[in-house]
Hints:
Elements: E1 10-15, E2 35-37, E3 40-42, E4 44-48, H1 56-76, E5 82-83, E6 85-90, E7 101-102, E8 113-115, E9 134-136, E10 147-150, H2 152-156, H3 158-161
Parallel strand pairs: 1-6, 1-7, 3-5, 4-6, 4-8, 8-10
Antiparallel strand pairs: 2-3, 9-10
Amino acid sequence: MLRGVAVALAVTVLWVSGGFRGLVSAQRDSRASLELVDGGYVNLLIGISDRVPNNPALLDRIMFVFTEASKFLFQATKKRAYFKDIHILVPESWEDSAEYSIVTWQRFDQSDVLVDFSGANKTNLPYTNRSTPYTNKATPCGEPGQFIHLTPEYILSQSIANPYGPYDKVGGGS
C-alpha cells in the first residue's frame, strides 16, 4: 500500500463502431506506440475481444487492476514510472455508454494487452487453453513483445490469479 503518493492515471474507454476482428499484428502504428513520457507510460492500449460478452464489471475490474499496477510500478521503479494514459477498446457488440469516447488512432490488432478467452489467438502455446496470463514475444530481450494476453476469468477471479504470485504484482487486486 502506498501512502502519500499521487499517481495520476487517465483511462479512456473507447467504443468501436464498425466492429473489429483479427489477431494482433507484429507491427504497430508509430503514432500509437507505448511511450515513456516524463515518467508516465502513455498510449497503453487494452483491447477487449468481440468474443467477450458485455460486462460492466469486467471493465471496472480492468480499470482497477491497471490503477493498482500503476501504483506498484511507481513504487517498484522508485517513483520513476507509472501508467499515465490507458485506452480500453470495447467491442461494438457491447452496449454503448455516454462514458465511451470515439476511437481515433486505436485499433484492436495493435493492442498491448488483449482480453479474450483462452486459446483465442491460436498461438499453439501449451498454456493457451486455460486462464493463464502470458506474453506473446518472438523478439530478442530488450525489444517489445507483441502483446500480453489476459482472460476475462483471470481479471475477474482472484482465485485464478493467486497462483501467479502476489495479486497486485501480476496485474490484479483485491
